[in-house]
Write a structure and sequence with these properties.
Shape of chain B: globular
GO biological process, one term (chain B): lipid biosynthetic process
Helix content of chain B: 55-70%
Subcellular location (chain B): Membrane
Keywords (chain A): Membrane, Transmembrane, Transmembrane helix
Number of helices of chain B: 12
Helix content of chain A: over 70%
Number of domains of chain B: 1
Number of strands of chain A: 0
GO molecular function, one term (chain B): iron ion binding
Order of helices and strands of chain A: HH
Keywords (chain B): Membrane, Transmembrane, Transmembrane helix
Oligomer: heterodimer
């Protein structure tokens, strides 16, 4: 028994949309950093370095 | 305050949720919401599915988190620990629930996967008793668990604590036979909240429709409404329907009350029921089998 062609096409279409949906929160986060000028990864690295001294 | 919220979620993810499920389950049972359909076979299956994954799956997740990932990605531990809490929350909420949406949808739309998921649909009732009811293979390969474990390893453990807690509450509440969402459709001032809620998260109305035994009443939609925590995926992909009603029957029409061990451990154990999807020579999807109807006898 096979999946019908329309369902197969919808699965492919929706999988492609899902890639955008997965990336969306990450892209929005990076956008917010570029607007605000925040660099939390740099602060975090400095904190780790200070802690290890 | 934050400390107490954190404590609530830590306990919720440990012993809290099973205790909530037991209490709600007792309330459902005492209100007669299982309608005498909780037979001995269903009881054993539901209890085994509630207990065994907690013993089998947790060590598996621990293995992935403590042994497998440090070997595979030795320098990546806590590499994303700098991600601010709310962004981490959003990344995990989308990553975890969208992965589960796909895992669930594919088990309905790819016929060869259906038999790993049918155990969850064979229950002719809704409620806490059947909320954990799954075939063991489906449970072990629950894809989003491994994704989330990986994100914990990469440093997003704190937001994961809250996402998994909220998700567990929503998905459990959507399976309840207590129709707690009804006031949001009937009480006027609650209706705007209800409108947003039923599109954003799974509710008894939308999730019960997914567990309907038929689509004929215009309420049941067992070939859609795949969302678990978020219903919004069904809205985006056009796989959902919202009726604000509850189906007249639950389960699967071609259910043959297969032995609990066959439902839990198929394909290791097969059913002896003739014509069952879980039997050796049974159909892959019973739905696709033509139903033989005997024409009514016409009296001369």
């Amino acid at each position: 028994m096979k999946t019908d062609k329309i369902t197969q096409q919808r699965i492919v279409r929706d999988a492609l949309i899902s890639i955008v949906l997965y990336a969306l929160p990450v892209l929005l986060m990076l956008l917010s950093f570029s607007i605000s000028g925040e660099r939390p990864w740099k602060q975090h690295t400095q904190t780790i370095v200070k802690a290890s001294r | 305050m934050l400390h107490y919220i954190e404590l609530v979620f830590r306990n919720l993810n440990g012993w809290g949720l099973p205790v909530i499920m037991l209490i709600v389950g007792i309330v459902e049972f005492s209100f007669g919401l299982y309608e005498n359909r909780w037979t001995k076979n269903e009881r054993i299956l539901d209890i085994v599915c509630f207990v065994v994954p907690k013993i089998v799956v947790r060590p598996l997740i621990a293995y992935v988190g403590v042994l497998f990932l440090p070997t595979l990605l030795p320098d990546a531990k806590n590499i994303f620990a700098w991600v601010p809490f709310w962004w981490g929350f959003a990344i995990i909420a989308v990553g975890d629930d969208l992965t589960q949406y796909w895992y669930h949808r594919l088990h309905h739309q790819l016929p060869w996967l259906w038999r790993f998921h049918r155990t969850h649909h064979s229950a002719p009732y809704m409620g806490m008793a059947m909320a954990s009811r799954q075939n063991i293979i489906y449970t072990i390969f629950f894809s989003q668990i491994y994704l989330t474990t990986t994100l914990v390893y990469l440093g997003l453990g704190y937001p994961v604590l809250f996402v998994t807690g909220i998700k567990a509450l929503i998905t459990t509440a959507a399976h309840s036979s207590i129709k707690w969402d009804k006031p949001f459709y009937t009480i006027r001032w609650l209706q705007p909240i209800g409108w947003v809620m039923e599109r954003l998260i799974s509710t008894p109305a939308t999730h019960h429709a997914h567990h309907a035994d038929s689509n004929d009443d215009g309420v049941g939609h067992y070939k859609g409404n795949f969302g678990n925590m978020f219903f919004i995926w069904d809205i985006i992909f056009g796989t959902g329907i919202i009726t604000r009603q509850y189906p007249s029957g639950y389960g699967i029409k071609h259910y043959k009350e297969e032995e609990w061990y066959a439902q839990f451990l198929w394909p290791v154990f097969k059913s002896k029921r003739k014509g069952s999807e879980l039997a050796v020579d049974g159909p892959v999807v019973g739905d696709s089998e033509p139903v033989l109807t005997v024409p009514p006898l016409v009296k001369a």
